[in-house]
Design a protein that fits this description.
elongated; single chain; 438 residues; mainly alpha; Serine Threonine Protein Phosphatase 5, Tetratricopeptide repeat
Length: 438
């Protein structure tokens, strides 16, 4: 591929933009719609090093070079360049990449002028992910509602699947589990109806069908439907493999790892996280490498090697912060707190939980809030804190889980609180507290 990459760069330097784009980049590097260099070779970094030469001053924040006469780039050409750049910037720098968001905004403007609803969906999805990942839930919800309206206007089942996915993902993030579940199951229903001829839009990195199945699995777990959630995530993984969609497979493996963690199965967490890290490293998905590293660190801690486990978690969270993402950080800090507590560092675990709770208050990311309160109660018990504080933490965990219809988290909080009260009686007889983490 290197001679072809060099040919595109030389073509751009010679102001032969249209020829470089169509005759080399699209036809030979990406092999038309196959996205060969990206999906088969995983060469997203190399593709970005080529695409940057289409931009003025070699800056992602600048417009593309237009060229002159027969080499002038059309509006459709600009859509291709901006979309490709945005996709690979997101893949390599995370969905919180501001440069990717700017590219998606330019795609949106061009699509509006050309009436291209399919690619407009891609542009809005990229912006939705940015605001979702950077903890702007109100903006993310507005974009999701806009996508939903557009899908209804187009009467397009494929767009409807994406729209319901966006609504479900945002509402799950906000802790409205019941409504999120209703939306995502509508998405699953459309997919299974067979009315969708194409389940992906050109250039989209994640299959919408895999996304809806994975989101449904997460919602079902929260609602206490453990057997069905496992069946859904297995289906999502199988579909991603069938499609040979490595980005969708990485996402499905992430959700599967999360579900194994929810079920407190460290052996499965370590296995799935290792699979996720291996795949994401091979295909250059650094965000999923980071996520897998943190989950594998938790598994290693739960299996007894707390020193190495904590080191992996701390490295992962550091990389997560560097990428600019905030969404999901409270959840990841909860993993860190559990590992620290298992390693006998309970005071540091409390600091992690307090940071997570402060982030929830600022960001409205409430889907794991009940578990944060439960863990807070466990850690307060471990240091012999005031009973009023401990009771308040457990009661708040139960209350919030009930409000969110998070049956699994409600049951866990109730069981921990019942164990606390049982041990409280024993403590009055001179015995200490030893509350389990789960």
């Amino acid at each position: 591929m290197e001679p072809l990459f060099s040919a595109v760069i030389c073509g751009c330097h010679a102001a032969l933009f249209r020829e470089a784009l169509h005759e080399v980049y699209i036809a030979r590097i990406q092999r038309g719609d196959a996205s060969y260099a990206a999906e088969v070779l995983g060469a997203r970094g190399a593709l970005l090093s080529v695409l940057i030469h289409f931009f003025k001053h070699a800056s992602w924040e600048s417009p593309v070079e237009m060229g002159v006469e027969e080499q002038s780039l059309t509006a459709d050409d600009q859509i291709i360049i901006f979309t490709q750049a945005a996709l690979y910037l997101s893949a390599l720098r995370g969905h919180a990449s501001m440069e990717a968001r700017i590219c998606y905004e330019r795609v949106e403007s061009l699509c509006n002028s050309l009436n291209r609803p399919q690619l407009l969906y891609v542009a809005l999805t990229g912006q939705w992910r940015y605001y979702y990942k950077t903890n702007n839930p109100s903006v993310a919800l507005q974009i999701a509602e806009r996508v939903h309206s557009m899908a209804q206007e187009q009467d397009d089942p494929a767009l409807m699947i994406g729209a319901y996915n966006h609504l479900a993902g945002t509402l799950l993030y906000l802790g409205d589990i019941g409504t999120a579940h209703k939306h995502v199951m509508r998405s699953v229903q459309i997919w299974r109806s067979g009315s969708v001829q194409s389940h992906a839009v050109e250039g989209e990195l994640e299959s919408r069908a895999v996304v809806c199945l994975g989101l449904a699995a997460i919602c079902e777990w929260h609602l206490g439907k453990i057997a069905s959630c496992q069946a859904l995530i297995d289906e999502a993984i199988s579909l991603a493999k069938e499609l040979n969609d490595m980005s969708a497979l990485a996402l499905a493996l992430q959700w599967a790892t999360n579900l194994a963690y929810y079920e407190r199965n460290p052996a499965d967490v370590e296995r799935l996280a290792s699979d996720s890290i291996e795949l994401s490293t091979r295909y250059s998905f650094p965000h999923w490498v980071t996520h897998g590293t943190i989950l594998r660190g938790w598994a290693r801690s739960a299996l007894g090697d707390t020193a190495e486990g904590i080191a992996w978690i701390e490295d992962g969270i550091r990389d997560f912060r560097v990428a600019g993402a905030i969404q999901e950080l409270p959840f990841l800090l909860a993993l860190k707190a559990e590992a620290l507590h298992l390693g006998g560092r309970t005071s540091e675990a409390l600091e992690a939980i307090r940071e997570a709770e402060a982030l929830v208050e600022r960001s409205e990311e409430r889907w794991w809030g009940a578990e944060l309160h439960r863990l807070h109660g466990v850690l307060l018990t471990a240091i012999g804190a005031d009973e009023t504080q401990i009771e308040a933490s457990f009661c708040q965990a139960i209350k919030l889980a009930r409000e969110q219809k998070a049956i699994s988290l409600e049951k866990r909080a109730e069981e921990t609180y019942a164990e606390y009260r049982r041990q409280k009686v024993s403590a009055s007889e001179g015995r200490g507290f030893r509350l389990p983490l789960w």
